[in-house]
Every structure is written in C-alpha cells, then in structure tokens.
Amino acid sequence: MRLNSLMTKTILALFAFNLVTGNLSLAKEYTLLNVSYDPTREFYKTYNQAFADYWKEKTGDMVKVNQSHGGAGKQARAVIDGLEADVVTLALAYDIDAIGEKTGYFGPDWQKHLPHNSAPYTSTIVFLVRKGNPKGIKDWDDIIKTGVAVITPNPKTSGGARWNFLAAWGYALKKNGGDEKAARNFVTALYKNVPILDSGARGSTTTFVKRGIGDVFLSWENEAFLAINELGPDQFEIVVPSVSILAEPPVTVVDQVAKKHGTFEVAKAYLDYLFSPVGQKLAAKHYYRPVAPEHADPADIARFPKVNLFTVGDVFGGWQKAQKTHFADGGTFDQIYVPSR
Amino acid sequence: MTTQSITPNTLGDAALTEPKAVRWLLSGLALTFLILFLVVPLVAVFVQALEKGVDTYWAAIIEPDALAAIRLTLIAAGVSVPLNLVFGIAAAWAITKFKFRGKAFLITLIDLPFSVSPVISGFIYVLLFGLQGWLGPWLKAHDIQLIFAVPGIVLATIFVTFPFVARELIPLMQAQGTEEEEAALVLGASGWQIFFRVTLPNVIWGVLYGVILCNARAMGEFGAVSVVSGHIRGLTNTLPLHVEILYNEYNFAAAFAVATLLALLAILTLVAKALLEKKVRHAVKSATKPIGVE
Fold first, then answer.
1. Shortest distance, CA A235 to any CA of chain B (angstroms)
2. Where are the alpha helices (DSSP H) in chain A?
3. What is the pLDDT of residues A125-160, one digit of tens each?
4. Do the Cβ atoms of B132 and A80 come within 8 Å?
5. Any CB–CB contact under 8 A between B141 and chain A?
6. Taking the complete model, does pTM exceed 0.80, yes or no?
C-alpha cells in the first residue's frame, strides 16, 4: 500500500512538473548579446531590465541580454574576429562600418535603419579636473601648457579617445581660421602632455580618479558625471570648454548573426525601444543626452551644461574620412604621438 | 674547518665570517621587503574586501555573475590540469628515460609558453581560430565557436600552463636516472609495469607539486584568457576577468571580495607547495644516494 501511495505521489508530481514546463514552453526565452563600448555599463544594466519587462508584457517571452564592454575599437575587432553579437552599440559609426565591411554581416546603409543616424543618445567631451581646479583649466588652450598632465585613452582602441582627438583638432581649426598646420601643432602639444594611454575610456577614468594620475581628464560627459557621482563631488569638478564635439554613438542589429540565432525580431525591438520614451528617459538619467529630450525627466536634462558643439560631418567630412586621415596606420596620430620616455 | 662533510644545510654559525650586525641588517632588509611587497598587499586585499561588512562581501561572491565566473574558472582548471598532468608525465618520461633525436627541440617546445607573453598566446588563437583567422571560415561553416567562448578560454589556459608539470618532473627524473627502470626490465617487467611500479612512485610528490603550480596558474591566468574571452558577463568571464570588471565599475568592495578568493587560492597553493617541497627534496636526495647507504 505504502509503495502504491508513493507511486501515486510520484506520478502526480511528474504530472504537475509537466504542467509547469508545458506552461513555460509556451513562452519563448531569448538571449541577446549586446557588444558595447566602455562607459555604457551602468546604462545598459538598467535598460536591459526595462526592455525585458516591456517585452514580457508585450509578448510573454523572456529576454536575457548579455553584455560585453571594452574600448570601442577593441570591441569591433572582437566582433570581426567572431564574437557573436546580436546588436552592437559602439562609440562611433566608423567602428560599426568596419564590422560591416570586414564580415558582411550587414550592409553599408545600416545607419539609415533607425532614426537620428541610428544614434539614440548623444554625448560630448568635457574636462574633469580635481576639486578647486588647481591648474586653473578653463578651456582647450590651458591643457597644452607645460606641466599639465592630460589623461585620455588610446585613439587606436578607444572610441572616446577618437572623439577627444577630433574635439581638440576641431577647436584648434576653428580658433586658427581653418589652419590645418596650427591644428596639428596644437594636438601635438596636447599629446606631449599625456603620460598614459589606456585602451578604453573606463581604464582612463580609473587612472585619473582612482590612481590619482593627471591634472585633467578628457572625458565623455556621462563618464565625468558618473565619476563625480561614484567617488564624491568633493573630489572633482567638470569644466566645460568653449567648444566641443557632438558625439553620436550609434547602434545596429548585426543582421546575419541575429538571424542565425533566431533573435532578429527581438534584437530590432531592443534597439527600437532605445528611442521610446522609456529608453530616452533612462539614457538621460545615465547622463546621455537623449535625442528626444521631451521624454526625459526635466531635472535630468537640466544637468547638461550648454556647450557649443560641432559635428564630425561639419569639420572632418564624416567618420570614414576622419578615420583615414587621423587614426589609420601612419595617420596623423601615429605621426604626432611619441610616447614619453 | 673539520673534516666532516659539509652541505649547505649543516653550515653552522662558526662557518660564517660576516659580523653579526651585517647578518642582522641583511636579514632585516629581506624581511622588510617581504612584508612590504607581499604581506601588506595581501592584508590590504582582505581589508578592502571586508571594508563594507561581511554581508557585502558575501553578496559579491554569491552574485550570479561571480558564481558564473567561479564555475568557468573551475572548468578551465578542471580541463587543463588533468590534460597537462598526462602530457607532463609522458613528456618528462620520454625525455629523461629515453634517448632520441630532437630531444632538445622538444624541451624548447615545452618551454615555449614560459617565454611567450600570455597576451601573445591569446592572439595566436584568435589568429588561428578567429573569424578572420586561418581556420575561422571552416569553423564558421561548421558552426563551431571556439574563440570568445568556453573552448577558447580552456585552450588558452592549457597553453599557458603547458610546461608546469613537465618542467617540474624533468629535473627530478633526471636526478633519479634509469638504473631502477633497467633493473626492473632485467627482472622481466613490462613497460607499463615499470612505469606504474617504479617510475611513477618515485616521482609522485613531484607530480603533485607540478599539479598544484599548474592549477594556481590555470585559475589565475589573466592575459591570454582576456584576449580570447570576449568579456561576456556571466558567460565568458573567469575570476580574474570578473575582478577587473568589478573594479572598473567602481565596485571596489566586490572586486576585492572576489580577489580574496584568488588570494586564498594563492595561500593554499603556497602551503601545499611548502609541504610538498620537503617530500620532493627527499626524493631527489634518496635518488642520488648510492644504493646500500641508508
């Protein structure tokens, strides 16, 4: 008898288990890999949760988004070498162009698939200095003075570093009435003041903030805010230069990889949602300038200082050209950068 | 000087010519150095880890990404150590007990991972198995993912830990010579019998010693694994990579908490190493002693 009742129980348990798993199998479970650049860690952490909730509500399916972060150039290289990203959210368009070109995963017109050139948020480059601004840094001219140590990552591997470089170059061009030679001298002097080139923006932040190296850190605006938030407003302050660059970090679905994974639809929805009120609001909350500020919390928008911005298109004729002139092997950066010692 | 045989271990005070002050000074210097560069950093790791209390410490360790990192580290070590154990014993056996052409070349090959920077060894695999690499297109056509996945991490770990067991055994086996094996052969033992009953028991402590070193390196490797990892949270991050990520996310207490796991591993390794070192030295000594003198 006892054996019998045990068997009944087991069968009942199995039946219940089947019911549960049967229910689960109705809801699909998707996994996305988002390969991103360095400073977006905190943003995508919250955004992924928001999207998973939204998607579950809408379709009943579960979405888990895995993240990989690093310098934008390095991350693009990894995708080219076979890291199977469903979506890439990098610091600049050129790195995504490179992925498309080398792998054929998506066409050259990827940037037209989403509004605003596929950039759901923008940012700019500001100066982070130590509290009280002991070196009296007000604008670009102050950071090329002798005795000022400048922290910026390596433009070969980091997207943020390339924005830094172009921001400085653009400033010098404007100041000298478009004189390329003057711009070159300015940027050469700037990189003479750089003691360390980290491979990504986050590495540079750590160098400046945690290791206490350098007087001024050329930083993503969001990264500067984050450093102040995480490590105390009593230690650092932000200096907004007279003119800076409009950084547009774009996003795209890696068509062929997502199709292979069967995640194309979810991946597309994941990026579309970045442009939704929720996505925009979260971006502003994490110090990215939303392309649709009307959706963001006005208090968040108020935190952004007013900066005179120029674009890569205006000054450099687009990323392809800027990359070739300045950052390709043997380009301007290679010519002017001489490691100290 | 007396006529008694002198080995470094039996040198007494009398044999030292330096004045006491010099000896104290030198010992003091060495000790200060040791404390400054080994003990203090080790203590600092634990202090930083527990800075925000035991709860934070524990939360950092049972966090899903941390557990995934621990699991992956165990997998990488669990695969690479046994493989290197088998390979190391086989290589050491072949090199010390047999004569063949190309022996010097084989030894050089075994040493290669020591002389190559770990980052380079990682890149070798990307160049070979990456999508743009030699075997990349073939792997893609067959839907095999090596790089930026667990197999790549295991491969890189195997490569950097390749020499540990072999390098540990070769000098030991060389010191022991081939007499015992020859005796066994004369008495009619088969190859496997010689190996399991004579060779292996003689070097068993050396094997363990090599395994411990190999394991420590396998779990602690950063450079090579970093290159082939792809840094996907919860999937392809080993413990050292996870520490870096936490540190870069201003999560200092958690970074140090996870680092204590690696520090504990290091301490355990040191203790095991110290214990085994005695046994190994004894094995070498008894091997070099003439037969009949006990």
1. 15
2. 2-26, 41-59, 72-80, 93-103, 140-143, 159-175, 180-192, 201-209, 221-231, 255-261, 264-272, 277-285, 298-302, 312-316, 319-322, 332-336
3. 999 999 999 999 999 999 999 999 999 999 998 889
4. yes
5. no
6. yes
Which residues of chain A neighbour B145 with C-beta distances below 8 Å?
A: 82, 84
Amino acid making up residue B232? I
Interface residues of A toward B, Cβ cutoff 8 Å, are 33, 41-42, 66-70, 78, 80-84, 102-103, 202-203, 206, 226, 230-231
Q: Is B78 part of the contact surface with chain A (CB cutoff 8 Å)?
A: no
Residues on chain A touching B234 (C-beta within 8 angstroms): 66
Q: How many residue pairs bridge chain A and chain B with CB atoms within 8 Å of each other?
A: 53
Tell me which residue in A68, A80, A206 faces B230 most closely, judged by beta carbons: A68
Residue A185, min C-alpha distance to chain B (Å): 34
User: In whole angstroms, what is the distance from residue B145 CA to residue B119 CA?
Assistant: 20
More reliable by pLDDT, B176 or B92: B92
Amino acid identity for residue A229 in this structure: N
Please say whether the beta carbons of A311 and A322 come within 8 A.
no
C-beta neighbour count of A30 within 10 angstroms: 20
Instruction: Say yes or no to pLDDT of A26 above 70.
Output: no
Q: Evaluate whether B253 touches B61 at the Cβ level (below 8 Å).
A: no
* B129 chain-A contacts, CB cut-off 8 A: 82
Q: Which amino acid is at A278?
A: V
**Bridging pattern class, strands A150-151 and A216-220:** parallel
H/E element holding A63? strand A62-70
Token digits for B47?
């202090």
pLDDT band, very low/low/confident/very high, at B97 (cuts 50, 70, 90): confident
Nearest chain B residue to A76, by CA: B230
Residues 6+ apart with CB under 8 A from A151: A194, A195, A196, A204, A207, A208, A213, A214, A216, A217, A218
pLDDT tens digit string along B2-61?
444 444 544 555 566 778 888 899 999 999 999 998 899 999 999 999 988 999 999 999
For A21, the token pair is 């798993």
Chain B contact probe: residue of A36, A42, A81, A260 with most B CBs at under 10 A: A81
Dist CA B67 CA B261 (whole Å):
12
The CA distance from A142 to the nearest CA of chain B, in Å, is: 29
Average pLDDT over residues A238-246: 94
